[in-house]
Amino acid sequence: MSHPLPAFRPAGVSWKAPPDPIRRRFFHDRPPRDPAAPQRSPPVQHATPPASPDFDFGRPPFDLLTEGQRTALAGALDIALHPRGAVILSREEPTDSLFVVLRGSVQERRGGEVAVVHGPSDRFGLQALYGTAGGDGTGSRRFIAAEDCVCHLIPRAALEALAGENPEFGSAILGDFAQRMRDLAAVRSNREMAALTMARIRQAHLHPPLFVDAAASLRDAADAMRRNRASSVLVRGEDGRSGILTGTDLRDLVVLDGRPVADPVGPLARYGLVTLDRDDLLFNALVLMTKHAVRRLVVTENGAIVGLLGQSDLLAVLSNHSQVIGLQVEHATDPADLRRASRSIVELIRTLHATGVKVAFIADLVTELNRRIFRKLFELLAPPDLLANSCLIVMGSEGRGEQLLKTDQDNGLILRDGFDCPDLPRIAADFTRHLVEFGYPPCPGNIMVSNPDWTRSLAGYKDALFNWVHRPDEAAQMNLAIFYDAAPVAGDATLLADAKNYLLSRLQDNQMFFTQFARPALSFDTPSGLFAALFERRRAEPVDIKKAGIFPIVHGVRALALERHRAETNTVERIQVLAELGALDRKMAADLVEAFTILSTIRLKARVDLPEEGPEAEPVIDNLVHPDQLSKLDRDQFKDCLALVKSFKELIAHHFRLNH
């Protein structure tokens, strides 16, 4: 007997005729809806085929099933056919089956945006199957056919029977779900943090500004604070500037320094206020408080002061996060205190990443915390004369402000010419040793203060820079690139500024030099064909995301910036300046910033998702990304980013004549 085909049959879909009599059913065969209820696409027809040869039993975790279990699953499968645009599953629609895509693709939308795209052999609907659809705090969740598609449906009863019969399979397919539920619980527990990072300052409680004139006395200021229950006053300076005087300042001035209470506050106030606009992010307030080690910020609107944001307002939300880490660093009395603060940064990164904070914001905050730790450690180890006559610098990703999780140390020390510290070798060795204990691995290239080549006088650095520019070999160009990214951390920052000015002054319009300097941007292959393996159901080889994607952008942009004698160190800032100067096409610049951000995010996610081995375990330093383990969205973005990197490398090769 011949069987009619369903009305809709996507091109390329094989169809096995079901046995007589034909059994058809509607998946959404439920009582009539309330007219006011949300409407969805018309019901989709399903038929039950015999054992389906199209089901991919080679795909994990179904490859764990025995032959008999595969036969039982194939016999229980249904097939669902969905035209393009059909709503397959929504928050309002519970289900009794797990979906596995056979042909086509399905968009998972959250809050109106495409979060994930599911392709052949991908599965979805497990949360709806167990009654948790939409319970992740992401708002409305819907699965929509991005094109004509066919899905296998695994009934809940069959799934649970196989899970009970085959514990390894059950752990794999339901364990993923359990882990997701644990992750969602963690997200819910951090909702206040998430709210903070997305909130504006105007949503926070601001303390009304309390002004006194510069001619007011210390007694007047103290009286104003008492009457208004304030912990500070703003001082109207005679030159039109505004300053601040806190209760702590009053205590120190009057009680400790013995100032007469009749003295005017104008000369004693601190000017150069740290301010933010009322429409700025609360997260930026957090970064500024951490950076400047202050406990309150002045908030402005249209240039006028409208209030003060206090540290306690943020600490109420961040009771165990960045501000506390900053306070631990500030009050550290020995390296052991700093070690505890440093170890807390990893959990802070995990929390911020889990709550959806952008990588650029995480990098800003981590950069400030790391530098405060380095500065405090150096201050604990170095005598005052060394602090006054040297500049501690960080280089590489730390110098560019792009380090997230802890990577190799890249640091050095510039000494004032003529200054000598007999105990310097021991201090430098102790500095490096303590950083290793904090979780910052030693640099394989030995670019650390414990190496005398990176702890030298300013004149010594200038000699090295001269040789790196005029006698370039591979090592010299690497050293020059690393130093070009340097940023000051402790001591006298003018020493680094002097060295960098010397470097830029020595650069000439020497095409050969810049050609050689830019060449490492092409050193590593950027693969383009590995993603075909995913669609051919072959295992894609892991990709070193740093070598294939991030480094070519960083070094290519660095070469363009050095050619233009620019002083910026951050990669995104360099890209933006190069676009303003016309050295980069604006569209290419915008695409590079986006690609750099996406690649950094994928790299961070791959590393923070690695399992921990203990309460203080650091994530493994591993730049390998497995494309077949990425979500569909990340995989598509990764592919697009690598394609852009290849185009950028071609631009660099043409600009610096690397193919000649």
UniProtKB/TrEMBL annotation:
Pfam families: CBS (PF00571), cNMP_binding (PF00027), DUF294 (PF03445), DUF294_C (PF10335). PROSITE patterns: CBS (PS51371), CNMP_BINDING_3 (PS50042). Residues 61-180 form the Cyclic nucleotide-binding domain. Keywords: CBS domain. It comes from the Bacteria. This is Cyclic nucleotide-binding/CBS domain-containing protein. InterPro entries: CBS_dom (IPR000644), CBS_dom_sf (IPR046342), cNMP-bd_dom (IPR000595), cNMP-bd_dom_sf (IPR018490), Diverse_CBS-Domain (IPR051257), DUF294_put_nucleoTrafse_sb-bd (IPR018821), GlnD_Uridyltrans_N (IPR005105), RmlC-like_jellyroll (IPR014710). Residues 198-261, 268-324 form the CBS domain. Residues 1-61 are annotated as: Disordered.
